[in-house]
């Protein structure tokens, strides 16, 4: 089968070619989906993407032989799902490589906000020695997790040693066994917003979750609460959040933005009570290695005639054999 991998130009193409080519001989590695490569577009059967590239319907239509798309990330919202469904193309992501990584990053953002890390670091870099602090402990607080999927569960597990109360909301409630193991309590969304000192978002972006935390829901949050978003920017009404943060009522730790890179002239970046990271919550050297390993393994499953893992949409599996 003719396989193409599309990777961003800042990754080491030769190193990836060396490592992947040994397992997938003849793989075509390019920097853009429609770039001229080893194979004509109309002959490509398998396409591997990262989170850095869009795959709109018009691009998919230029690949009439395409049968399987593997996205080497958790998110796959940059692929036109309507066209994938229309064509019956199989689509898989890799949801298992960075769940722990993102959960660790959420804890980092929470602690950075509670301990005013960036303010103290900035003051010392200017030669100042702050004598007073309005820092807070995490212990004894209530953390609300919106979305108890893989990352939400990993976060709950990492919060246990901090002696916090963990409440969660999800469309599908966890089993009693999982709730007991993780020490979490289910509550409706509005109750979590009213009670939680920290709210962390771990929901997929759907029509139901888009702007889930609108102005009205943000108003429900406790004064002084922290909002952490490492999921999707579109889950939150950003202008409404900006106003709440400017007023000093909420603090925010954001790893995702409406456009990336964002508009750095946005006054949010100069507002106290904020911490930002550049959509790298799930990116560590270890996580990237796991993504590569799991991606290659899943493509090999498909090439061997097996149903690929982590199916998220598409057609029928290949016949065994």
Q: What can you see in these coordinates?
A:
The chain is an alpha/beta fold and 321 residues long. It has helices spanning 13-21, 57-60, 81-87, 99-114, 117-125, 150-159, 176-182, 189-195, 215-220, 238-246, 285-303; strands spanning 3-6, 28-30, 46-49, 68-71, 90-92, 142-146, 165-169, 184-186, 198-201, 225-229, 250-254, 274-276, 311-313. The strands form two sheets. A seven-stranded parallel beta sheet has the order 8-7-6-9-10-11-12, with helices on both faces. The model is unreliable at 315-321 (pLDDT under 50).
Task: Record keyword descriptors for this entry.
321 residues; disordered C terminus; 6-stranded mixed β-sheet; alpha/beta; 7-stranded parallel β-sheet; 11 helices
| Class by SSE composition | alpha/beta
Q: In terms of per-residue confidence, which ranges show pLDDT below 50 for 5 or more consecutive residues?
A: 315-321
Measure the end-to-end span. Answer: 14 Å
Strand content: 15-25%
Shape: globular
C-alpha-based Rg, rounded: 22 Å
Mean pLDDT: 93
Put simply, the count of helices is 11
Furnish the topology, listing elements before pairings.
Layout: E1 3-6, H1 13-21, E2 28-30, E3 46-49, H2 57-60, E4 68-71, H3 81-87, E5 90-92, H4 99-114, H5 117-125, E6 142-146, H6 150-159, E7 165-169, H7 176-182, E8 184-186, H8 189-195, E9 198-201, H9 215-220, E10 225-229, H10 238-246, E11 250-254, E12 274-276, H11 285-303, E13 311-313
Parallel strand pairs: 1-2, 1-3, 3-4, 4-5, 6-7, 6-9, 7-8, 9-10, 10-11, 11-12
Antiparallel strand pairs: 5-13
Structure in a nutshell:
The chain has 321 residues and is of the alpha/beta class.
């Amino acid at each position: 089968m003719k396989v193409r991998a599309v990777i961003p130009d800042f990754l080491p193409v030769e190193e990836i070619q060396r490592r992947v080519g040994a397992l997938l001989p003849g793989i075509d590695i390019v920097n853009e989906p429609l770039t001229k490569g080893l194979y004509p577009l109309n002959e490509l059967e398998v396409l591997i993407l990262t989170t850095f590239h869009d795959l709109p319907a018009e691009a998919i239509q230029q690949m009439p032989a395409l049968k399987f798309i593997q996205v080497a990330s958790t998110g796959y919202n940059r692929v036109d799902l309507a066209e994938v469904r229309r064509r019956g193309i199989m689509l898989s992501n890799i949801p298992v490589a960075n769940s722990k990584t993102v959960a660790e990053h959420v804890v980092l953002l929470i602690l950075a906000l509670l301990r005013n890390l960036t303010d103290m670091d900035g003051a010392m870099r200017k030669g100042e020695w702050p004598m007073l602090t309005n820092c807070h402990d995490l212990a004894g607080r209530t953390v609300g997790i919106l979305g108890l999927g893989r990352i939400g569960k990993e976060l709950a597990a990492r919060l246990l040693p901090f002696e916090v109360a963990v409440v969660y909301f999800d469309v599908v409630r966890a089993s009693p066994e999982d709730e007991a193991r993780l020490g979490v309590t289910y509550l409706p969304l509005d109750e979590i917003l009213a009670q939680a000192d920290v709210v962390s978002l771990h929901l997929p972006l759907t029509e139901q979750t888009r702007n889930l935390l609108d102005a009205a829901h943000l108003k429900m949050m406790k004064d002084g609460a922290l909002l952490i978003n490492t999921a999707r920017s579109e889950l939150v009404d950003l202008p409404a959040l900006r106003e709440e943060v400017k007023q000093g009522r909420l603090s925010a730790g954001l790893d995702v933005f409406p456009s990336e890179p964002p508009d750095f002239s946005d006054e949010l970046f100069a507002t106290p009570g904020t911490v930002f990271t550049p959509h790298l919550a799930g990116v560590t050297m270890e996580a990237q290695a796991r993504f590569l390993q799991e991606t290659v393994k899943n493509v090999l499953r498909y090439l061997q005639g097996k149903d690929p893992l982590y199916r998220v949409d598409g057609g029928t599996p290949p016949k065994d054999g």
